Amino acid sequence: KLYPTFEQYPEVVVYTDRMSDDEIMSLHATGHCFVTTSRGEAFNIPAFEAAAMNKPVIHPQTPPGVSSMYP
């Protein structure tokens, strides 16, 4: 959805610290989607984890055969 002003958009949080497995699963469970900018990872496991929890994945490049993992 596009908003007329920047202030109307929801807050975006960027985590840069290490997270435990439980924290990661909790984040996937409460988030609306998963966004990754990675192009160099072979399998991008975090994207698969998010998709396994029925979260949409926004990815800059979808390798062949992977598009079916996205809800």
Measured as a percent range, the helix fraction is: 25-40%
Count of distinct strands: 2
The spatial strand order of the largest sheet comes to: 1-2
Task: Give Rg in angstroms.
Answer: 14 Å
Structural class: mainly alpha
Number of helices: 2
SSE sequence, one letter per element? HEHE
Distance between the termini: 19 Å
The general outline is: globular
Question: Which keywords apply here?
Answer:
two-stranded parallel ribbon; 25% helix; globular; 71 residues; 6% strand; mainly alpha
Brief sketch in words of this structure:
The chain has 71 residues and is mainly α. It has helices at 21-30, 45-52, and strands at residues 34-35, 57-58.
Structural commentary:
The structure is a single chain. The chain is mainly α and 71 residues long. The protein contains two helices and two strands, in the order H-E-H-E. A two-stranded parallel sheet has the order 1-2. Strand 1, helix 2 and strand 2 form a beta-alpha-beta unit. The protein is globular, with a radius of gyration of 14 Å. The mean pLDDT is 80.
